[in-house]
Amino acid sequence: MARAIDTVDEDDSLTVAAVARRLGVAPATLRTWDRRYGIGPSGHDSGTHRRYSAIDLMRLTAMVRLIVAGVTPKDAAIKALAINAKSAKNKVEKVIQESQANGDLVAQLYKSALKFDQVNIEKIIKKSMANDGLETTWVEVIAPLLTEVGDDWVRTGTGIETEHFLSEVLRKILSENLGKIAKPKNSRPVLLACVENEYHSLALAALAAVLAETGIECIYLGARTPQSALNEVIIKSAPPAIFLWAQLSENADHKYVKSIPAIRPAPRILLGGPGWKSSKVVLTNKLVITKGLSDAREQIMQAVAV
Q1: SS3 218
Q2: DSSP reduced 3-state for 155
Q3: In the prediction, which pLDDT does 305 show?
Q4: At what angle are helices 73-81 and 27-37 packed, to 10 degrees?
Q5: Report field, pTM of the whole predicted structure over 0.85
Q6: DSSP summary character for residue 281
Q7: Per-residue pLDDT reduced to its tens digit, 39-90
Q8: Given its phi and psi angles, is residue 157 left (phi above 0), alpha (psi -120 to 50 degrees) or beta?
Q9: Which end of the chain, C or N, has fewer beta carbons within 10 A?
């Protein structure tokens, strides 16, 4: 079991083997975390290997506990790296407790999805949204839930009905946040669409709902938007930003982007989804691949000058 946060001594300076023993993980795992997520030893004496300081140990302890609580290693590293020497121990514990609570929420939601209990799913998610906001709920609760459902389907070959049911319930919840902006912050709406042949649109609906919560008005075209329809809306609405979602790499066709009509002022074109990672699109300051929901929101807010 990982060492408790409050037992870390300020003068600790340890080797990778010593830290691995304390945390109950393999030294190779610590090296991987250092290489992949940048969470590693900060101390270094001339002629010796890098050594872990007390704050390094505190961060890694938090990371292990976050992973045990159900947080992905990448997100756990981000949370752990935010811990610094001035962080109060109770603040660190609060971060871990919140993540553990979210892990419990994911487990509860998954059980409800297996029972097709729509009422309980809506109750849990709406409470989380009221307490923490839609964006946090998506990142820390809904996205991990969808990942767990998808992983189980891949592993067992069963449960596609659970995924379909859950997706529709989530789509209903997200749609309740749309169309309620009395005074939008942007003079011209942002355009959101899935590329042609891309039918996975739930993440796009989440972005539309997050933007609505922020006061950004959108034109939401949803799944499988034909090029001709996209172009027609662009010409008629002159959006300041265009966000195109591609879940699958086979749908992330750079020709779809190149065929967007030229308008003035030129919009910022944002690409979202794992499908674009292997695309041949040439990126510029007006053509950006976003790195997640928060980054997409920030990029759109910059484009509309909010």
Answers
A1: strand
A2: helix
A3: 85
A4: 70
A5: no
A6: P
A7: 988 865 555 577 888 888 888 988 888 887 667 788 888 888 888 766 656 6
A8: left
A9: N
